[in-house]
Every structure is written in structure tokens, then in C-alpha cells.
Amino acid sequence: MDAFSIPMEHDMPEGNRIISYKTAIQEATDQAMMHDSRVFVIGLDADDPSGMFGSLKNLSCQERVIGTPISENAVCGIAMGAALAGQRPICIHLRVDFLMSAMDIIVNYIAKWRYMFGGRVHVPLVIRAVIGRGWGCAAQHAQALHGLFAHIPGLQVVMPAFPYAAKGLLLSAIQDDNPVIIIEHRRLYDQKGHVPSEMFGLPLGKGYLMRKGRSLSIVAASLAVIDTLSAVDSNDIDADVIDLRSIAPLDMEIIRSSVKKTGKLLVVDYAYPFCGIASEICARVAETSFSDLRQPLARITFPNCSVPASGILEKAYYPSAKTIAKKALEMIK
Amino acid sequence: MDAFSIPMEHDMPEGNRIISYKTAIQEATDQAMMHDSRVFVIGLDADDPSGMFGSLKNLSCQERVIGTPISENAVCGIAMGAALAGQRPICIHLRVDFLMSAMDIIVNYIAKWRYMFGGRVHVPLVIRAVIGRGWGCAAQHAQALHGLFAHIPGLQVVMPAFPYAAKGLLLSAIQDDNPVIIIEHRRLYDQKGHVPSEMFGLPLGKGYLMRKGRSLSIVAASLAVIDTLSAVDSNDIDADVIDLRSIAPLDMEIIRSSVKKTGKLLVVDYAYPFCGIASEICARVAETSFSDLRQPLARITFPNCSVPASGILEKAYYPSAKTIAKKALEMIK
Amino acid sequence: MNTPHRLPDSTACLWMLKKMILIRRFSEYLIPIYPTDVLETPLHLHIGQEAVPVGLCVHLTDSDTISFSHRSHGPALAKGINLQSLMAELYGKITGCSRSRGGSMHLVEPELGMHGSSAIVGGGIALGAGMALAAKLSNADHISVSYFGDGATNSGIFWETLNFSALKEIPLLFVCEHNHWANNMPAHHHMYGDPLLVSKVFMESFQIDGTDVLDVYKGMAQAVGYVKEMKKPAFALCKTLRWMTHLGVSYDETHCPENMRQKSCPIQKLQTIMMSENMIDASGIQHIIAEVDQDILDADTFAKNSPFPSPDSLMEDA
Amino acid sequence: MNTPHRLPDSTACLWMLKKMILIRRFSEYLIPIYPTDVLETPLHLHIGQEAVPVGLCVHLTDSDTISFSHRSHGPALAKGINLQSLMAELYGKITGCSRSRGGSMHLVEPELGMHGSSAIVGGGIALGAGMALAAKLSNADHISVSYFGDGATNSGIFWETLNFSALKEIPLLFVCEHNHWANNMPAHHHMYGDPLLVSKVFMESFQIDGTDVLDVYKGMAQAVGYVKEMKKPAFALCKTLRWMTHLGVSYDETHCPENMRQKSCPIQKLQTIMMSENMIDASGIQHIIAEVDQDILDADTFAKNSPFPSPDSLMEDA
Ligand SMILES: Cc1ncc(C[n+]2csc(CCOP(=O)(O)OP(=O)(O)O)c2C)c(N)n1
Ligand SMILES: Cc1ncc(C[n+]2csc(CCOP(=O)(O)OP(=O)(O)O)c2C)c(N)n1
Ligand SMILES: [Mg+2]
Ligand SMILES: [Mg+2]
Fold this sequence. Notes:
heterotetramer, A: alpha/beta, Rossmann fold, 2 domains, 5-stranded mixed β-sheet, globular, C: Rossmann fold, two-stranded antiparallel ribbon, 12 helices, 7 strands, 10% strand, binds thiamine diphosphate, binds magnesium ion
């Protein structure tokens, strides 16, 4: 078979088929590979026994899982070439940081190909990369660089926060004819939740309202959604909580309509602050929903420095549910 | 001699020693090399007869100008290694786009070294790169990627708009103990203006008020400053015009105090819109000068797509003095 | 010039002669019109180097893929790009092969295995390898070619792709069109070692006289044949001469003066042999030139008469 | 083991024995404490590979520079890093060599020519070359070493640096500590060709038995001597065995079982020769071990008693 067509869901599904985030990724990968012989997995340690932190274990089509040398730039280029020639590669990276070696291919090639050739070619390529954190990972192994990719026209960037989104967004990305970068968070890999067993997709570029409230809009993605929910739930904060799911394209509609209601915006992005996705959201809201705003909007991000190794500094570095709750309560009162 | 100490100017100097932007760069480079034997120039085509669009012609210390193979990643790493070992390299690139090949070294090494080693080492390295434009340069040769660099903590990014700033910022960058990326615009190379003959520096991280007005604050950098001035001057627009000079660190003080006065903000950045420096400025103003704002702030940037080759599309792509004037007049009335 | 033992048959010789003349005449046609600024796009001409793409592509089928770089006209025409869509692309017209978004350095024709050329040195080598991997994964019989200059061997991605291809046994032919220059940098300033000494560590390697299309024909017959049959990568180093300056439409009189050009002209060499073998006579050659020139004129007319893209279409395919 | 013709003098032998024992005992000391989570930082141990850094560094002066990577303890200790500041860095204490910002993979000691180690594979090779360029530009006499694993040869920056160094004739010694693995990937899965066949195209190259410190001593004497004298780059390939799993504190019993370890132990090998040459006896060895162990204990006490960084200092040096 060489294509699949999946129903597009949007809501968070109900049910109790509880599996982990990593298993959801594994399941989506496995189903895609079984239903479409063009899908293959490529990347450093793709064939390692650890199976990319478990997300690639026990795949049915092991012959289409290609481990590679430590050559991230060429490997991304090779994955892209295969995509141009009709395959559907999933190019994996154990750390987002390693993608910096492949920036030439990502920025100058993958992002530009479709436009630069007037739509005569397209690059159906999925890049997966994991954000690390903790255990003294230090500055080169714990970056969240989605803002860099989002800056570049032609790249779609998604950040699933839940197992069902990990599955749905991955399947949508594989089915999409254009490149999608999926940024996963290592801390989410063991999180569990209901995931439908059948194949389904979540629309790229659409956020989802996780909690309904009246006093504040909180926008977040990936791990920051989990912390935001915990902050909101355990402090009875009367806030809209929007899980962005995609950061490029950005679902401004859902943000605007929430801000229209609440008049207050807090963006939580676990990444460097400067020129990040939180900046973009705040700028857009200030541009186009200005009159809805009742007070200054606010951001919670990493501080403007690299991640330190020492645990005690790591703790000072990372925002948490507590940071979010504090800020949210401040903004509401 | 192995160091120089230059007076720090801030104002735009008066005088009529009129030289071009490229000559100003040449002069700064030459003076730095003559006053500090640690300063050297390295990069692809550094020793080409064209002298990097004229900015490296006729240097006195030609033996410290090192042409390299097409190996941008290694060359940036080598420049950094030399900096760690006590030299003061200026690593040059004829197009900003080529820096994507060196992103691993720039993001994971150059930006992080000082912090990651607790301040025990520092990287006194200058990277120069030129933004291209026009003549069907197309998507891979006309990018302005300063937003990417600005996202990364540990990188200073400056964008001189005038010959005197080209000289002053370059000398400050060379003198600085930490890495500075200088983004120059090809279109500015032949622009002329007064430049003092002696060595002087402009403070990194400080903007400059080019025009004083009451009705609007316009913030811009590099070529966008020139277009903004032309828009403002030829339409008698009563606006503050701020030349950022540095985009990281960002001089928020000058922006905030202007917005406090005018209540209106327009940011002009000739770059991709999403997660760019214009987003950052707007977000910060909306965060911290919210009550000063009398209407929605606005941005003028490239559209969210790659640069096309065809001249007619290029024209549709690039903002101009006209675009700026139109928007500014709209915002004032 | 060493005469090859067996000459290719006359169909092949005629095909190669015509293709080389096409590349030559097309490029020469651009020389006078370029300074008039009707083509706003940076040109890297292939004059003098025609033997390499032509002696390669004569062995390729439409489904064989090829990736190449900024010096794009030669390989694109040899692989069969439509002349009109190429010309229109140079004119920035919507009928261009890249619908006016690409310009001279960014050519495409997916149906002929050209999935887009890059103006950033190096990366295209990996794209070619990816297409070879795709062929292997889909059990297809075609091969892929990564076509690049001597300067591109400087880049890390060249090395990474060499290693990957050898490890994974993909049907990829590396073709290095070694014209001794990367911009104004002579090869011995940018590459220390003979690339063939390196490639031999990884794969079957061929040294080819890139100024002699019959040597290219013979060498590529072996190289392409090896890749097709063994389904393994191979490397072909083709030394040739760059007649022009790196960019633009001037002859490089300093480094490649007239007498050098005459001695090394691949078209002259082939014509001489074909004539001595009675495959063609002077009028036959004139006929080819006339035919080619007419095609070029037609393409020019087509391009001139084609519309520019609408400014409103700026964001299409973004 | 081939006995080298001339043994280094006893000062050198004692220096090497003590350094190797220091690296070994230090690493072994970490094994039991790592699972207690007092060191929150990813450890890549050097056990079994001690001969390479030690046989190299015995020839280096303090002003010679060296860049290395995630597997950092061996080269850092061999080059002379202060044991207390190394230990404190592993504990995340402010007295650590990187003031607690770096952890195990990011060690630094500028005064000893260690300008910081990287945890991204590859780039450090270029840093070492930059330090060599600095030596050349400032007419200094010292040399620089780029120290890296077999896996790092996969990366494009390795290739680019090889070419650059040969072209520019910089005093750089490439040392490839080839332990046959990159994480769980055996070398034949990640490198197709023998790296020495490639390096020979660019520079003087040496093959060294990395499990035998006397062979390393001899080879590095030549290699370091060549670079110092000729002021040109050279390459040393040191094949050795990784006793441990890639990361963490377990022995890799599958790929490097006990009997293999015993046969290839560089410390055992040196001890045997030194004893047979009457350079040391059993009690002398015991004495070294005791001394080293005491230093390690002192370092541990120092580290434990050192303060953590203040959370308020987070942004220092940002
Ligand atoms: C990464 C990168 N660096 C620099 C350039 C500028 N550049 C364009 S063509 C060229 C020379 C390429 O030489 P070669 O590969 O031998 O191709 P040739 O032009 O000789 O056909 C250079 C340096 C580029 N396009 N990309
Ligand atoms: C660019 C990059 N890709 C992947 C990794 C993950 N990684 C860390 S160490 C390692 C193996 C390195 O092998 P080698 O260079 O032989 O060093 P060794 O661990 O054997 O000493 C890998 C793949 C990395 N750190 N950097
Ligand atoms: Mg060339
Ligand atoms: Mg190894």
C-alpha cells in the first residue's frame, strides 16, 4: 500500500485505552509503516536497542529502520532527497541540539524547496527531535529550539503535550505533503493517557482549549501545558488553558477569541525568551487584539541564558507549575 | 602591540570626512589589525581580489588575512579555537545564509562557552556576514537571519546602518571579550557618510535616536533605518526614529521612553516576521509599556515566505520607504 | 587525446554532439543579452565543460535521478530539461521551470529525475544520496547521481555522504566536475588531497578526462554500469577546464586563454573524430547548429512572450 | 605485545604508571557512588583506555593545548587537571573547574591548555585546529591536539578540519581514540573506511596500539615530535578497547568480558615491564595506588565540603 488517509479529529478523545506518550509514538509509527510502504525511519541510533527512549521499539518493519553514522547534516539531506523521490521519511534525533548540525539542510533546503521551485516539488518529511532536561544535561543537551525553526517560512513545527496528540500529530505529519518538525519533550515520554487504537490525525496548525475559564487566557505548548494544567487545577484558577499543539502555523484564532473573553494573556514557553514563540504570540495579540487587552500581557520562559549543569541551578533555571500559578494568580487579582 | 582601548562614542558624529560603509569597515579592520597583532581575518574568499565587496581591500597586514576552503562549520570552529587561545579573529561570510552550515558551532559552542565554563574562558570572536538582496538572489542567498542568532543567549548581534556605525560597532566588537555577530546589508556598502579617522567605539546594546518626533515611535535596524528616515523625512512625519544598532542586547530603555512620549509603536525589521526581533520588541513593549500604548502596535517585515527570484516578485516581497510611510501615516492620523 | 578503443555508435555520438552544441550555443546566446539586464539572475555558465554532463547523461534514463548545483545549465540540459522552461526561468517568467521563483541556480524537472538544484555548495550531494536510498528502499532499478564541483568536496556533507553511501550500499554515482576552481580559488588552495585517493577508500572510483566526451562516455559507461549492476556507490572524478569566470558571461582570459580553450574544446574533439570516422560531415554539423540555434531562438521568443508572475501570486506555495 | 626497542626512562614510566592508575582509580571510585545520585551528571568513563591520553600527554607541555569531548576525564587528568576541581565539578559544586555550570562533559583548565570540552560530537576537532592556528599566528612553539573518538570521524567537521589543517600547515596533532564504538554502534557500522587511509592523503599518520602505553609513548614521541619540528599537522590512530558501556558505570560484559579486559589492560602491561626492568616492585605499585587513592579521597572530601552555587548566581557569566 502506498498511502493512507486518516480521519481528522480535533477534540481530546475520551476513553480508557491508557498508554504512554512513547508508546503512542511507537504505535503511530508502526501503523504508518504498515499502511504505507513509503514510510521509513532514519537517524542516529534509530536502530539502537533503546529504540529512541522506547518510541521505536518493536516496529513491525524493522528493515525500514535505518541507523546512521553521526552525520546529522547529511542524514537530514538524505532523508530530504528520499522524500523528493517519493518516500516518506521520519528523520529522528535524540536531542534537538543535534539539529544545529543540520541547520543548513533544514533552513536552506527543506524549508525552501517547495516555494523555490514554484510548487513543482514538495518534501513530505517528518523530523522528530527530543528536548532534554535534568541530570546535568547542561547547555548542549537541554535546549528547546523550536523558536528557531518557527522563524523560517516553510517549516511546520508541532509540539505534542499528550499521548493522543503525539499519535495524532505524528500521523498527520506523515500524511502531510510538506515538512513537519515534531519537537517532543523527554519528560513527557512516560506520561500516560487515553489513545484510540485506530489511526487518526490532528489538524496541523490548530490549538485546543483544555480548560475553560473567564479571568485569564494561558497559552502553552508541550511540557508547559502539563505544568499549566497542574497550576490551574490545584489553585482553582479560572483560566482558559490553550494547548497550542502546533507552533507553526500558529492558531491565532483560538488565542484571540480567548483573549476577547478574558482580556488577559499569559504565554508559557519552556524555551529561550528572546525572539521565541511567546514573543510572537504576544506581539500578534498586541497588534490585533489590542482593544481586548485589559492589562499588560505576560510571558513565562527560560531565563535568557544557557542551561547550567548543577542540579541546584537547573532548579533555579526551569519554570514550574508553581511559577505559573504565582504569575496567573497575580494577573487575576 | 596586543590590545587597544578606544573611546566610546554614542552620538552620530558631525564632520565631513565622507567615506562609504565598506571603506569604514576596511578602515576599522585595518586600524584594529595594526594596533593589535592578535586581530586576524579568516573566511571563505577573505583573500579574494574582490576583498569582500571592497570591505577588505588593501589591508596593511595581508599575512593575517586567511582565505579558507568552503568549510563554514570548521572555519567558525577554528576561529573560535583561535579566540580561546588568545587571538581576536574576525570570521567573515559573504552571505548570512552560509552561516547556517556553521550553526552547530555558533549555537552549541560560541554562544555557550563562557557560561558553560563558569566564566573561566571567553570567546573574543567577531563574525561578519552580509545580507544579500536583488538580482534574483533567490531564497538561498538573500536571507536576513539575525532573529535566529538573537534567540540564542550568549550571542551579541549588531546591525550597523551607517558608515560611522559600521566602523564604531566593528571596533567595539573586536575589543569586546565576548562573541559579536555583525550583520551588514549589501545595499549599504556604497552608502556614504562622515566617519572620524581615528579609532572609536560605539557601545554594544545601545540604540540611537535619529529623529525626534511626538506622534509615533519607529524602531528599525540596518537598511530599514535608511528607508524609515527617507519615509519620515519626505512625508514630514512627526516621529521618533530609533536606530537599534544592536539587536542583542536590545536597548529597551530608548524604545520605552520613546513610546512613553508617543504612545504609538511601529517596528520595521527587514526579515522574516515569525519569532523575529520585531516580535520581541512588540512583546516587550506590550508587557512593560502597556499603559503607555494608545493604539495597537504594528510591525513591518518580510512576508512569511522565502525570497523569490523573479524581479517582479522581489519587488512585491520587499517593504520600502513607501510601505513605511503609508503605515506610519495611517498610525498617526 | 587518447582515442578510445571502441567508439560509441553513431546514435550516441550524434546525441552527445548535439547536446554539447546545445549547451554551448545556449550559453553563448546568453553572453550578449546578459549585459542588457533582461535576465536578472546570477549566471554560472557551462561553456567548455560540456563533455562531463553530456558523457554522463547519455547513459542515464529519464527515471535516473540527478542532483546538481549553481552551475546548473549543463547537467539540466544534458538530462533533458525543456529549453523553453529553462529560458523562461532565466527571464523570471511564470512559465519557467520553477515558475519564476528559482532563477538560474534553481532548476527543476521532477519527471526527468531533477528534483531541484541548490545554490548552497555541498548539500545537493546528500540529496542525490537520498534519491539513491529511495531507489533502494523501493526496489527500483534506477540509479541516482550527485553532481558537484571540486569546491563542494571541501564541505563536510560531502564526506558524510561518502561514508553513508558506502555503508548503506546505495546506487549512487558521485560525479565531481573538477574544473580546478571554486570561484577565484584554485583547487590546490581549497583541496589538499586528490579526492580520488579518498573516494577509493570508500568505493569503486574512476578518473576521467572531462574535456574529452569520449573518455567521459567510456568512463561513465563503466561507472553507471557498476552502480546499476552492483547497486553500490561509485565515484567519478572528471577533470575539466572552466573557460569562463566563475560568475557571469566573461571568458577567463587569464587562466584559460584562447589557445588553451581551442586545444581542450570537447566539441572540437568529438567533431574531429566523428568526421574522421565518417559519422558526420561539415554540413551535418552546420545542420545541428542551425537546428539548435532555432530551438534557442524559439525558447527565447517563448520566454519573452511569456507573462511575468503576478505580484499577487507572491505567497503561492509558501 | 611488542616490546619497544628502547624503554622510556624511569621518570617517564613512573609518570605514566601513576597517571594511568589515577585515571583508573578515579573512575572506579565513581562506580559505587554514582548510583547514589550524588553526582547528577552523565558520566563517560575512561577505564581501559588510559594508555592513550597518558602516552600522549607525557610528551606535552603545559602550554600545548588540547581539545576533547564528552569522554573527558582521561585526557583532562592526563593533561593535569586539578583533581579536586574535577571532582567538585561532578558534584555540581561552585568549586568545580567549570564553576558547576559544566558537569562531567564540560571540563576546563585554561592555564593547562584546556579551553573547554564539548558534548556535541565533532566540533572540538575544529577548536583544536583553531588553537594550532593561534600558535602559528603568534609564532609560538607549542602545538595543539584535537582528541576525539572513532565516532567523531563520521562528522563533516572532522573532514573539513583535516583539509584545512593540511592546507594551512598548522601545528595540530589529530588523536583518534578508536575504542571501536560510538554509543552502541560498532565502528564498522559508522565508519566504512580505515581513517588512516584517509588521513594519509592529508598528513603524516601513525598507527598506534592504544592498549599499550609504551606503544603510545613511542608513537606519540614521533607524532608530537613531527608536529613540533615540522610545524605541520599529523594524525595518530590509537585503537583501544572500551571496557565500559558508553554511558554510566557498568562494565560492558558482552563486548569486553573479563578475560579480554585482563589481556588488554594497559596498566598491567606497563607494570609487568617495569617490574621486569626493575623500575618498580609490588610495594612501589602499592605505594602509588595508596597515594592516588588518598588524593581521590581528599578530592572527594573537598568536593563534598564545597558549597553548591547559589541559585541567585544563575545568570552569572550569561
Ligand atoms: C556553503 C556555501 N559557501 C559559499 C558559497 C559561495 N559559492 C558559490 S559557488 C562557489 C564555488 C563552488 O566551486 P565548485 O564547487 O568547484 O563549483 P564550480 O563553480 O567550479 O562549478 C562558492 C564558494 C556557497 N554558494 N555556499
Ligand atoms: C552531533 C552529535 N550527535 C550525537 C551525539 C550523541 N552521542 C554522544 S557520544 C556519542 C558517541 C561518540 O562516539 P566516539 O566519538 O567514538 O566517542 P566515545 O564515546 O567512543 O569515546 C554519540 C553518538 C552527540 N553528542 N553529538
Ligand atoms: Mg569548480
Ligand atoms: Mg568510540
